[in-house]
Structure formats: C-alpha cells, structure tokens
Amino acid sequence: MDEKKTSHETGFSSHARKNPQRIVFITRKTSAKVKGEIPGQVMAYPHLLLREAIAFQVLVIAIVLLALVWDAPLEQLANPLVTPNPAKAPWYFLGLQELLHYFAPLVAGILIPTLVVIALVVIPYFNINVEGEPMWSSNAARHLRLLLAVSAALEIFLGLFRAWTVFVPTAVIDALAIYSYFVPPTASGFGRYVRNRAVSWWVMTWFICVAVVLTVVGTFFRGPGWTWVWPWRGHAG
Amino acid sequence: MATTFHDALSRLRKTRVWKSIFRRGPALTNRTRSLAVFGNLFLHFLPVKVREKSLRVRATYYLGSISFLLFVILSITGVLLMFYYHPAVPQAYRDMKDLRFVVSNGVFLRNLHRLAAQLMVLAVFMHLFHVFYRGGYKPPHEFNWVVGVILLLVTLFLSYTGYLLPWDQLAFWAITVGTNIISAMPVLGKYVRFQLLGGNLVGENALLRFYVLHCVVLPLAAVLFIAVHFWRVQKDGGLTAKGEDGRKED
Questions:
Q1: Domain ranges of chain B
Q2: What is the residue extent of each domain of chain A?
Q3: What element of type H or E holds A41?
Q4: Which of A179, A225, B116, B231 lies 20 to 30 Å from A40, alpha-carbon distance?
Q5: CATH architecture for residues B60-235
Q6: Tens of pLDDT along chain A (237 residues)?
Q7: Cβ <8 Å between A80 and B34
Q8: Residues 18-57 of A with CB under 8 A from B
C-alpha cells in the first residue's frame, strides 16, 4: 500500500472538465484481496465459549469439593519472639530456600532468580530457540564435546558446594542427553523422541527437573535446622 | 418444559430490551455470531474464529483458561473476604478466628480462596511450561510470551502478599524469610526491603502495605496484563498450531 500511495491520489482540483485527472488508478497486485476461507476454523461463539463455560463449571465443582475436605492452615498468632524451626517460605519459593542452603544469599536469593527471569524473557528472541533444530542434527560430535564440557564443569561446581539436590537431577538429565546421542537413527518410541530434541528443550527440561526436585525436597524433606528428614517419620513442616 | 424454556429464551432474544443490551438479536448466523464476539466489550478480546485443532483438550489442556478462571474465583472470594478483614495487628488474626467461628461458611470461603491461590500458581507455571513445549513463544508470539512472564511474576507476588494477611506464625515467618533475602541485593537491598515492609521488621506497616498491594495494586496490574495477553493472542493470529508455519509435526 505505502509505496503505491501516489498512484491513487486524485489531486486537489475539483474542476473535473478543466483538469481532467485520473480518478482511480489500479495497478497490478494492489487490489484488495479477499482471503479465502481458512479450512478447519469454527466460530468462537458458540464453540469456544461453550468449552470455556464447561471448563469453568468443572473447575468450580472441583474446587468446591476440595474446599469441603481440605482446611486452609491457621497457626498461632504471629509472634516475632518465637521462631519456628524451620521457618519456611511459601511452597513456590522453597526451591530458592533450598538453594540458599548451599549458596550465598546474593547468589541463591538474588542472582539466580534474576537470571531465571531474564532467561525466560529472552527465549523467543534467540534464533536457536525459534528454529528448534534437534541437538544432534548437525555438528553432532562437536555438540557432544560441548555438552560433556559444560555438564562436567557444572557438576564439579555443584559437587564442590555439596549441592546434591541440584547435582542429582542435573546428572539424570545429563545422562539422558548423552544417551540420546547414541540412540540409532532408526530407533522408535522414546529413543527417537529424545534423539530429536532441541537444545532449548534440554535446557528447559533440566530447569524444570531441578526446580521440581528442589521444591519437593524443600517442602517435604527438610526439618529443623534445614536437615534432611523423611516425611513419613514426622517433623515435616 | 425444555422446549417451552427454549421458546421463551428465543422470544426474549428478539425483544427490544435484549437487543438494546446485547446490540444484536439471536446469534443464529455467522454474521450475528461474529457480532456476538466483537460487539461485546468482554468477548472482543477473543478471536471471532478459532482453529478447530486449538480447541482440542490436548492442544492447551485449558491451562490458560484455568489460570484466568482461578483469577476470577479469587477475585470474587477475595472481595467477600475483604468484608470480614481488617489489616491491623492483631485484629487481622482475630478476623481469621471469626471466619472460623462466627461468619457463616467463613471456613469454606477462606478454603476456597487459599486453594484457588495455590492452584493458580501451579496452573500459571504449567501454562508457561506447556506453551514452551508447544513452541508457543515463537514469532509472532514473542512479546506475548514476555507478557506471560510478567503475569507469572504478578501471580507470584499476589500469592506472596496474600500469604502475610492471616497474621499467624506461618504468615509472619514466611514473609520474614522471604524479605530477608531481598536485603542480600547489592546496594539497594536494605532500602527495597524497608520500602516493602514500611520498616525494618515485619509489623503493622508491612501488613498494611501487603494488604494494599494484594487487594488493589497487584489485581489491577493482573487485569491489565491479562487484557493485553488475551488481546495479543487474537492479534498475533490465534494459538500456535502444530504443523503450521513450516514447523515440523512431532
């Protein structure tokens, strides 16, 4: 539209006989094109709205049933002089609290969460994530060396800080990634699935595994003084 | 009975009053069905047409819808809870006791709010991860992904500020632990913590600030970003469908 604007202009003279000017000028490929019906589409009203309404009803029923059998916790009146042991943050921050057990507050409490948020924000702005090529589709040997170097450095670092609850899920994902390199191209099922994953998939899966393990450990396996406890033997906050 | 109710409804839809409210008659043609969406302030965030594929449960697991619906439930139960709550020490805690022993269905109301809050954090996380694995962040959806990350942070802050309000031991120490981390921030740490708590310790000022953040500031921010989020889904061409835009089918 923009570059052809001049060809549509009729000028400012309104005296048609004196200044016979073109009224409209249709050049090739500038006519409004009616987009044909895109197949496989349905009207949002009622198809989408009906489903949303059903989802809402199912959700409300589920929450009401849960609220009838589960009670929101309420402890004693807040007392700044009596510190519970352990004092735990809400469950979604217990992963961070678990990290605080290993690393300095500046690292675990500020640096890591900030980096996670930045990493999440920039995901769509890196072509490697957008293209999503399988990690082993090109330069496989070089990628394997890189993977081994990065994961070894990470594991040594985690080992030095004795951060075992990060070390273990990292090792599991590492093993899976290395395994996926040796899966033959003819494989099917799970082997084929992991073989064709992109770098972004591996990083995100590693992040989720670590986050879940840290949160579960922080919630159920940490007792007084943040020592390890088994939840089935009491103590769990 | 069913037919008569149906008849009554369709007669009602043809009345002047109905048309004056909804700006249209019965939505029987695709034209009036389109009008039903973009002629309505609340529905115009939605697209007029959606891909049949993206309606399937496996395409989304309705995680985005569930997050939003939980937010609606939280807004309603939250307003009801506000009727019984004073952000003061120790009245806040007494109000919790009143909810349990004095207010009709008070426990149920508080359970609903607490439960929906935990589920919303969970639903928002799962929505984020699911969208990632679907490749939903890819162009042209980049910015809506960023809006989604902002909404995740708003959700976490909403949940966290609400955590203090019962003013029991659990609330007090969770917030103390959390805000102590902030002071580890270089240069600004102590200052930010002081501003957030309205003092050096979690006390009456902190309760008031968390209350205002929880009931006014953060819900408004959430509504604003949810509106942008929905609107951008529509403007960016609907949900990402697998196998389209040159992407490979798994």
A1: 60-235
A2: 91-225
A3: strand A41-43
A4: B231
A5: Up-down Bundle (1.20)
A6: 444 444 455 555 566 666 666 666 666 666 666 666 677 888 888 889 999 999 999 999 999 999 999 999 999 999 999 999 888 999 999 999 999 999 998 898 899 999 999 999 999 999 888 888 888 888 889 999 999 999 999 999 999 999 999 999 999 999 999 999 998 888 888 989 999 999 999 999 999 999 999 999 999 999 998 999 998 886 544
A7: no
A8: 38, 40-49, 51-52, 55-56
